[in-house]
Amino acid sequence: MPLYTLPDLAYDYSALEPAISGRIMELHHSKHHQAYVTGANTALEQLAEARATGNLGNVNKLEKDLAFNLGGHVNHSIFWTNLAPGADGGPEGDLATTIDEEFGSLEAFKAHFTAVALGVQGSGWSVLAWDALGSRPIIVQLYDQQGNLPAGVVPLLMLDVWEHAYYLDYQNVRADYVAAFWTIVDWSDVAARLVRARAAGTLLLPA
Ligand code: MN
C-alpha cells in the first residue's frame, strides 16, 4: 500500500512574497506539512498493526491521529495549489456565476469567507467547499485539521489560519494576512476544482 508523500510546490518558497514570506513557506511546507504526512503514515501503520494483532484497545486514539494528520495533509495539499505568485483578477465563467448566485456577489463572498477566517478560535481554516448533496457551494469553518466539516463536501478554496501560517510575518494581525491572501489566490485552480466537484456530484446519492 503506497504511503503518503509530501508534494512538491509548483513555485519557489519565496515566490509568494510579500504576501507570505519565503521563511514561512519553507517551514510550513517542509516541517509542518511533512509532519502531517509522517503522522498519517504512522497512524495507518499502527492501525494495520492493531488489526493484525487483534489489539484494538488503542483504536480511538489512532483514529483521531489519522483524521488529524490526514486532514492536515489534504488541507495543505489543496492550499498550496490554491495559491500562485502574481495571481490577480478574480473568478470567471462558471465559478464567478456560482459565487454570485449563492453568495450574492464576489464582495459578499469574500466578506463572509474573511469573517470565517478571522473568527476561527484557536487553530483552523476558512473553506469554500462544494456540497455534493445539495449541489451548491458553502463556506465552512474548519476546526484544527478535521473538525466541523460535513461529510461529502469537496474543498475548493482553503485558507490556513493556524498561527504557524502567518505569525512570523503578521504577528497577531491576522486580518492583514487574510487581506494579503486575496492577492495570491489562483482562481483558475479554484475553477478547475469546481468543474471536478460538479462531475462527482452524484456520488453521495443516486441522481
Ligand atoms: Mn498549516
From TrEMBL:
One of its GO terms (molecular function) is superoxide dismutase activity. Coiled coil: none annotated. InterPro entries: Fe/Mn_Superoxide_Dismutase (IPR050265), Mn/Fe_SOD (IPR001189), Mn/Fe_SOD_BS (IPR019833), Mn/Fe_SOD_C (IPR019832), Mn/Fe_SOD_N (IPR019831), Mn/Fe_SOD_N_sf (IPR036324), SOD_C_sf (IPR036314). It comes from the Bacteria. The keyword Cell membrane does not apply. Signal peptide: none annotated. It holds the Pfam family Sod_Fe_N. It catalyses: 2 superoxide + 2 H(+) = H2O2 + O2. The keyword Transmembrane helix does not apply. Its EC number is 1.15.1.1. Mn(2+) binds at residues 28, 76, 160, 164. Residues 4-84 form the Manganese/iron superoxide dismutase N-terminal domain. Keywords: Metal-binding, Oxidoreductase. This is Superoxide dismutase. The lineage of its organism: Bacteria, Bacillati, Actinomycetota, Actinomycetes, Micrococcales.
